[in-house]
Amino acid sequence: MHMNPLNNLNFSGGPGALPESVLLQTQQSIMEVPEVGLSVLGISHRSDWFAAVVAELEANMRKLLGLTDNYHVLFMQGGATQQFSMIPMTLLRGKTSPAEYLHTGYWSGKALAEARREGEIRVLWSGESGGFHRLPENEELAFSPTAPYFHYISNETVEGLQFHRVLGRDDVPRVCDMSSDFLSQPCEAERYSLIYAHAQKNIGPAGVTVVLVRDELLKDAPTDLPGFLDYRSQIQAHSIFNTPPVFAIYVVLLITRWLLNDIGGLSRMAEINRDKARLLYSALDGSNGFYRGRAETKDRSLMNVTFNLPNPEIEKRFLAEAQTAGFSGLAGHRSTGGIRASIYNGLTLQAVEQLVGFMEDFERKRTR
User: Residue 220 catalytic?
Assistant: First the structure.
């Protein structure tokens, strides 16, 4: 079975590239899952096979992240967007103290609007007036001990910003959207009360969202939530409350096997991701201002490298020539423009080396 090599040069912000070995297994499973004899697209979510998939995937997540038994591992639908609503419905409704949020980019801004539907929130810090080029320092954040929870996004995909530390108070529940850096590196999961991440960056195709939730967080949750939007219903049903995205969940299982068996765990994955990011940022920093990184150096994302060229016309030419050369998905988000190279888990170091070679050639032709 021959895979299209252009997939290896997919720098899209999402859906991101999947490892070639996983794509090959996925291709096979669409025709026939060997142990079942049916296409994965036609296997019942009530089958013993799928129950075993969910059980193994949960176990793999626990192993990769070192989760203790008081965490539930859920595979839900609705993307991170549904979590923007479910979290305040569960944790903010009826509370007298405001929940605390950070506004560090495009996606954290989306979360604010949904939270305000359920109760009062306090935006501890916003980078909007500065164009979202940096993240807050610790001394800029005054956390309240009475907040029902504190919410932030670990990696802002659009702006190319990433926190390289855990934020918040240990006595206030931490809630974190890790959609674009989940399983890209080790994570102090036990310091969070709830972590959520949709799949289509590092861990699979769109359609499934991983939610890790600490058991104690749900003890005072409202009792009148719709069943589908109640974490306790989803826990009781082992993520099969209704028809789940069987295919997407199966691909996430293949990704966790790849991380455990082929890569060797999250520490090794982090090393590979740091090498990719170092190579690409070195190309920016060594270009004498031809390539201009958007994010402050200390806050640079290891997942999404955002930059500009001297003017929009040159950016347009860069994107056109990159596309012709086989590099896909390099256009910046519609809200920011510019260039964005997303270097998620599935994208190889060799792909980044090829992109850097292209960038050096492009620069040379315009500056000699």
Answer: no
